[in-house]
Write a structure and sequence with these properties.
The protein is of the alpha/beta class. It folds into two domains: 9-269, Rossmann fold; 274-539, Rossmann fold. The chain is 33% helix and 24% strand. The chain has helices at 78-89, 109-116, 130-141, 182-187, 198-212, 217-236, 253-269, 274-287, 296-299, 308-318, 324-344, 381-390, 424-427, 443-454, 475-481, 534-539; strands at residues 9-11, 66-72, 95-99, 146-152, 157-165, 170-174, 190-195, 245-248, 302-303, 348-354, 360-366, 370-377, 395-403, 410-416, 430-435, 438-439, 462-470, 486-493, 495-502, 514-516, 521-528. Strands 9, 12, 13, 14, 15, 16, 17 and 18 form an eight-stranded mixed beta sheet that branches. It has a six-stranded mixed beta sheet with strand order 1-3-6-2-7-8, sandwiched between helices. Strands 19-21-20 form a three-stranded antiparallel beta sheet, with no helix packed on it. Strand 20 (514-516) and strand 21 (521-528) form a beta hairpin. The longest helix is centred in the middle third of the chain and has 21 residues, at 324-344. The two termini are 47 Å apart. 46% of the residues are buried. The protein binds adenosine-5'-diphosphate and ligand L45E5XJ5. Its cofactor is Mg(2+). Pfam families: PRK (PF00485), UPRTase (PF14681). One of its GO terms (molecular function) is uridine kinase activity. Residues 13-22 have a biased composition (Low complexity).
């Protein structure tokens, strides 16, 4: 792996307009193709055509990520092969290139001093934290988030920071010892060994280490003869026997093409028909006669009290003649009421206080370690204001789920989560308000809940807050699959219909279960009587 820092890298094969970032920093300006320049690898941002559902109707992940292990001598061309595979795959879902270099053990000051004198053996299997490597890879393969170490070749040291990774469909790991460890080998779906002549490897290593790793030629040669060459003979070379395919270290375009064809076939087998299935079940049940309308109690929803005051607010919001200013005012007010209702679902404990007139009294205090919001873009946006009013300084992340224009499948296009749920241990202690304007087919809600579960948020700590739910839509499936998730809603409507919306093709109002379908309009599942496209009415 080249580059001074060696974090795992998230790459996309072709540029996309949508930024799917593993980092909380959104990219605003066009970035160079990270495949072309090794120096940009450390800044690479995951871009994707979107991640289709990775779970079944039971909500459980059904296909692990496809994992490829690439081993070979130092500078044999492992990173190059990995990038060529990504490039050759063309339009594919997200890929992570995970370098074994990230997992060099933390060194003592004495070891670092030896490393600077080219007297430290980085080529023995013991130099690598194989256990951590296997555990991070196993999390990623199981579609869970992970945080991997970041290594500096310049400092010969693992840095304090870690790199958050989530959401890859294909993971390519590369490293001299990638095929060495049995636990790692177990995780691979395809094992590759890159074979190059030793003089080619040495020549490439000298050029690269001088240019990119700040080394002298003398140091490189000393390290090579003392450690690199013997390790290749003893460990790296012999591990080629575990490979499914040996790829030449140069002129390897035919091998790369064969490998990508194999991967493409494997991915096709994993394609799913999720939203269609959810909507299909619904249509079939409707065509058999009048839909059986489950009651709010049967659906297990927490519905705001349907007081005349609330009904009055909904009347204004449902009215198509309501001016936008009024719509925004009442949506914000309703969002605040829903956030307050959501707060009722949290645990509280007793707290004794003293009042300004000297009386002691027992009250309540919120009993949660951490609390955040995640908004399903962009129609979850109008609920953010309500949550901010109720919870001071609350961190709110976002997810972008959009329907594929051809298949209608929900696609996860963007994940930007607050820090408190980017680490598994913290996520387990965090309560999350998941915000979306309405639940129609339920496909977006399903996907968003799955993302939180992948990060280790317990289902009982997820509070889905929404203005409207379609009684006969996917809510029954969402509730059946994730019974511990609380759904707080303003009103429950009876209808859900697939409609052609004229002239709104460019809209990205994706939280409302719509299918983008050309510039002249789009097909969308709309809740009826409903309020129309809440995001459009709020933001346009
Ligand atoms: N097939 C190839 N053709 C030409 N140059 C290559 C090829 N593969 C690798 N290289 C060059 O060799 C050097 C080391 O390659 P790299 O992929 O970083 O090796 P590794 O990851 O195995 O250490 C890089 O400068 C790279 O550009
Ligand atoms: N601080 C370090 C750590 C490792 N190395 C050398 O890197 C080689 C593995 O990386 P490749 O990208 O070449 O596969 C390995 O041979 C180590 O000797 C180093 O020089 N300094």
């Amino acid at each position: 792996m080249s580059g001074l820092l060696t974090p795992a890298v998230l790459l996309q094969s072709t540029p996309s307009s949508t930024n799917v970032s593993p980092d909380p920093t959104p990219s605003s300006s066009p970035r160079p193709d990270p495949l072309l320049n090794t120096k940009t690898l450390k800044n690479a941002v995951l871009k994707s055509h979107g991640r289709p559902p990775w779970y079944g109707e039971d909500g459980q992940p059904c296909f692990p990520a496809f994992v490829i292990g690439i081993a070979g001598g130092s500078a044999s061309g492992k990173t190059h092969v990995a990038r060529q595979i990504v490039r050759s795959l063309g339009s594919i879902p997200t890929v992570i290139i995970l370098s074994q270099d990230s997992f060099y053990k933390k060194h003592s000051p004495e070891e670092i001093a030896l490393a600077f004198a080219s007297r430290f053996d980085f080529d023995h299997p013991d130099a690598i934290d194989m256990q951590l490597f296997a555990s991070c890879l196993s999390d990623l393969k199981a579609l869970r988030q992970t945080n991997i170490p970041v290594y500096s070749f310049e400092q010969h040291q693992r840095l304090d920071e870690t790199k958050y990774l989530y959401g890859a469909t294909i993971i390519i790991t590369e490293g001299i010892m990638a095929l060495q460890d049995p636990a790692l080998r177990e995780l691979y779906d395809l094992k590759i060994f890159v074979q190059a002549d030793s003089d080619v490897m040495l020549a490439r290593r000298i050029l690269r280490d001088v240019k990119e790793r700040g080394r002298s030629v003398e140091g490189i040669l000393e390290q090579y003869l003392r450690y690199v060459k013997p390790a290749f003979d003893n460990f790296v070379g012999p591990s080629s026997r575990y490979a499914d395919i040996i790829v030449p270290g140069k002129d390897n375009s035919v091998a790369i093409e064969l490998i990508s064809t194999h991967i493409r076939r494997q991915l096709e087998k994993r394609a799913r028909q999720f939203r269609r299935k959810m909507a299909g079940t619904l249509s079939r049940s409707l065509s058999r006669g009048p839909a059986r309308h489950l009651t709010n109690e049967e659906l297990g929803l927490v519905v705001l009290d349907q007081t005349p005051q609330l009904k009055g607010m909904f009347t204004i919001l449902r009215d198509e003649t309501t001016p936008r200013q009024d719509f925004i005012f009442f949506i914000d007010r309703l969002a605040t009421m829903l956030a307050e209702k959501g707060m009722e679902m949290l645990p509280y404990r007793d707290k004794t206080i003293e009042t300004p007139v000297g009386c002691r009294t027992v009250g309540k205090v919120l009993d949660v370690e951490s609390l955040c919001g995640v908004s399903i873009l962009r129609s979850g946006g109008p609920l953010e204001q309500g949550l901010r009013r109720v919870v001071n300084d609350v961190a709110i992340g976002s997810l972008l789920v959009q329907s594929d224009s051809k298949t209608g499948e929900p696609l996860l296009l963007h994940v930007m989560l607050p820090a408190c749920i980017r680490e598994r241990a913290r996520a387990a202690k965090t309560w999350v308000f998941l915000l979306d304007a309405q639940i129609g087919t339920g496909a977006s809600a399903f996907m968003a809940i799955r993302v939180l579960l992948d990060h280790g948020v317990p289902p009982a700590q997820i509070i889905f807050v929404t203005f409207l739910v379609a009684r006969c839509g996917g809510i029954a499936m969402v509730r059946r699959t994730f019974p511990e998730v609380t759904v707080v809603v303003g009103a429950v409507d009876d209808g859900l219909h697939e409609t052609w919306l004229e002239g709104v093709g460019a809209s990205m109002d994706v939280g409302e279960d719509d299918d983008l379908d050309g510039a002249a309009g789009r097909k969308a599942w709309v809740v009826q009587p409903g309020m129309g496209q809440i995001g459009d009415r709020y933001y346009l």
